[in-house]
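A quick aside before the break. I want you to see a complete sequence-to-structure record at least once, exactly as it would be stored in a machine-readable document. Don't worry about memorizing anything.
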Amino acid sequence: MHLSTKGRFAVTAMIDLALNSNGDPVTLSGISKRQGISISYLEQLFSRLRRNGLVQAVRGPGGGYLLNKYLAAIKVSDIIFAVDEPMDTTECGSKGECRSAQANHLQYCMTHELWTNLNRHMIAYLDSVNLASLVEQQKQNRIQATQSQKISIVPEKRSKPNDLKKSFRGKTVNA
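That is the input. The structure line, written in tokens, reads:
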């Protein structure tokens, strides 16, 4: 299976929307700047996400997009399927047209069941991951990054004892 940029960008954009909304609409230009995804590509993705009921558009000044469901109710599989991302590892596209090379053989290709089972497991996994867990993961990553920046303090440069000088009655003397 190859998950194209369409599916990856859709999930990324939905995480960004959830992180930056705070109840207010988020603009596609904002998502574009933060994630490095072109606005025209985001427009295509959000059109599909809106048609599938995952987001709602808010028009006018201060407009943008809002999530249309609770974070926990949006599964990663919902996002990927909303943007028409195929998730199939079989050669035949699960149509059963991967018959043996011999014309008189009426069996599926030898690995058809293997790839069909992989499809089921991938979908089951993506069904088990929701937007709430991805957003929480991003928040934790931000906290850890902030904490690691605070920990990496550069030690002070200390003076050598011979370099110290004291002032005594207006005169400088070596300490």
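Two observations worth writing down. The beta strands are 55-58, 64-67, 165-168, 171-174. Helices lie at 5-21, 28-35, 39-51, 76-82, 112-128, 131-151. We'll return to this after the break.
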